[in-house]
Amino acid sequence: MFETAIWAFAAALCLATAMITTRQGLRYTSPAAGAAIGVPSSTLLFWCLAPFMLDFGDIDFAAAGVFALVGLFFPAAVTLLTYTGNQRMGPTITSAVSCTTPLFALAGAVLFLGEGLTPGNVLGTGSIVLGMLTLTWTSGARSRDWPLWVVGLTIAAAGLRALAQVVTKAGLALWSSPYAATLIGYTVSAVVILTAVRLRGPRVQTDRRAMPWFVATGILNGASLFLMYTALAKGKVALVSPIVATYPLLTLMLSMFILRQERMLKRVVLGAVLTVAGVAVLLAF
Question: Under a CB-based contact definition with an 8 Å cutoff, are residues 12 and 18 in contact?
Fold first, then answer.
């Protein structure tokens, strides 16, 4: 269980860092253009490493089909939705709205994978989600310069991310290869994103200054996905999803020290305590 938690936490750390690099890259280009850089960059890297990381003799075509199905919407659609939310609302609020992922994932794991719903699952997941909401709570005095429908896009991304976790877990039961799941999913997603950008035509413009930021974002997101799938191969969705969802706390800390957009407030301390307590409950029960 602790090994699974370590893999999941590593995935959260990569995801949190990717939120920061995404924000930097979005200063120079659009979400679609950024996704067209990041996802193919990760895909190319995964294919370069495939001869060393993947045993092609163990291929399970049914599982490969499952991984390809997931790739149609994750990370493709989720990346576009998250980038849009990040551009409109900033990395911290986008991350916090995304914390609803474990709620969807827990429901899916119980309904479709037969994972047991225990008091520890409920309390731990609830504490983590409450902690994430506390981290991003703002008073009414603070102005909001983005439309409410953007929140809906981010919630949709959270639901799709949860669906990907549940479906991929089922695929990993057939072929326990996190690298294959990542490689196939990213390959399909790269085709989807590049096709979508191609259909949009010349409206998608890219500033060269965005290139290194989104290459870094793609690598970080790819690493996060591989680490999360490794955790899913070893443990239950009910444990992995909530721990990965703690990345908003890490995003907040990085925003404080790198972007200098956040301050250490009482709500930050309270949110951190609730989050850590939630993880502790998940591990204990």
Answer: no
pLDDT at 262: 55
Phi-psi region of 240 (alpha: psi -120 to 50; beta: other; left: phi over 0): alpha
Task: Match 């990717």 to its residue by tokens.
Answer: 18
Residue 202 has pLDDT above 70, yes or no: no
Per residue, the 3-state secondary structure of 51-97, as one string, reads HHHCCHHHCCHHHHHHHHHHHCCCCHHHHHHHHHHHHHHCHHHHHHH
Question: Longest C-alpha distance within the chain, in Å?
Answer: 60
Give yes or no for a contact between 160 and 134, defined as CB atoms under 8 angstroms apart. Answer: no
Please give the single-letter amino acid code of residue 144: R
Phi, psi of 29 (to 5 degrees): -155, 180
Write the CA distances from 210 to 34, 44, 217, 277, integer angstroms.
7, 18, 10, 38
By CB neighbour count within 10 A (0-12 exposed, 13-18 middle, 19+ buried), where does 6 fall?
middle
Number of domains in the chain: 1
The whole-angstrom separation of Cα 18 and Cα 24 is: 10
pLDDT for residue 116 is more than 90: no
The values of phi and psi at residue 74, to 5°, are -140, 120
Q: Which distant-in-sequence residues (6+ apart) come within 8 Å of 59 by Cβ?
A: 175, 180
Q: Tell me: the pLDDT tens digits for 58-105?
A: 899 999 999 999 999 998 888 888 878 877 877 667 766 777 888 899
The residue-averaged pLDDT of 199-211 equals 72
DSSP-derived 3-state class of residue 249: helix
Predicted TM-score (pTM) of this structure: 0.87
* The two structure tokens encoding residue 267: 């709500």
Domain extent at residue 76: 2-284
Distance CA 106, CA 268 (A): 25
